[in-house]
Amino acid sequence: MCNAPGSMRRTAGGRLRDVLLQLDRRCVFYSEAVEKLQSAADRRAVDDVLGRLRERGGRATPARRLLLDALFGDSAHRSAEELAAEVRAKAPDVNISTIYRNLDELVRLGVVDRAHLGPGPASYHLASAAHGHLVCERCESMTEIPDELFGDLARAVGDRYGFAIHPRRFALTGLCARCG
Questions:
Q1: pLDDT for 127-166, tens place per residue?
Q2: What is the rounded CA–CA span in Å between residue 127 and residue 141?
Q3: Within 13 Å and on the Cβ side, how many CA atoms surround 46?
Q4: In the predicted model, what is the mean pLDDT of the chain?
Q5: Which residues pair with 132 in a beta bridge?
Q6: What interhelical angle do 62-73 and 80-90 show, nearest 10?
């Protein structure tokens, strides 16, 4: 390393800062790449669902596409009203009844699950691996849990009452760790 006056002397801190800047740039690049891949995958998924609707005689309407975009864009459990608000932000003329009809059709297709997670309206989310829900009665937080945790309960209910529990639509209410 040169110690002459006016020369650029790189310290360990300076090298570390450069490395961190390079890593930050790479993270931004990778993050953007992942976002593009996810949005491309979401578009393909929306197109696949619209194709399934067409096969059953349905139409690929702008309202359906916007609803599917909302569902694939966020995996959260949301009410029909919340989904309608997101759709209406892009297409104000879409009526809530259109949202409900489309959600009913998507539930029949097995694309969307409808769940009653405690008090309030039903929530909708993309069908995924079977899971149950724990809903806090105080703060209304919701936690998804694997359906295996309901295995013993499902068997006991089936054996004793002849009733089949569907974990995707199943919620246990109580108090979460924060509220308990």
A1: 776 677 888 889 888 888 887 787 888 889 999 999 988 7
A2: 20
A3: 21
A4: 77
A5: 145
A6: 120
Q: Are residues 49 and 91 in the same domain?
A: yes
Helix locations, the chain, DSSP H: 12-55, 62-73, 80-90, 96-109, 151-161
Q: What is the pairing mode between strands 171-174 and 142-146?
A: unpaired
Domain count within the chain: 2
Q: Are residues 117 and 141 both part of a single domain?
A: no
CA 125 to chain centre: 7
Express each pLDDT in 31-66 by its tens digit: 444 344 445 566 777 778 778 888 888 788 888 888
98 and 173 together in one domain: no
- Phi, psi angle pair for 114, to nearest 5°: -105, 130
Alpha-carbon distances of 53 from 60, 65, 86, 169, rounded to whole Å: 7, 11, 22, 23
49 versus 173: the higher-pLDDT residue is 173
Q: Are residues 118 and 30 in the same domain?
A: yes
Q: Is 121 helix (H, G, I), strand (E, B) or coil?
A: coil
Do 168 and 122 share a structural domain?
Answer: no
CATH code at 94?
A: 1.10.10.10
Domain span at residue 174 reads: 129-180
CB burial string 119-157: b at 16+ within 10 A, e below: eeeebbbbeeeebbbbbbeeeeebebeebeebeeebeee
Q: Is the pLDDT of residue 111 over 90?
A: no
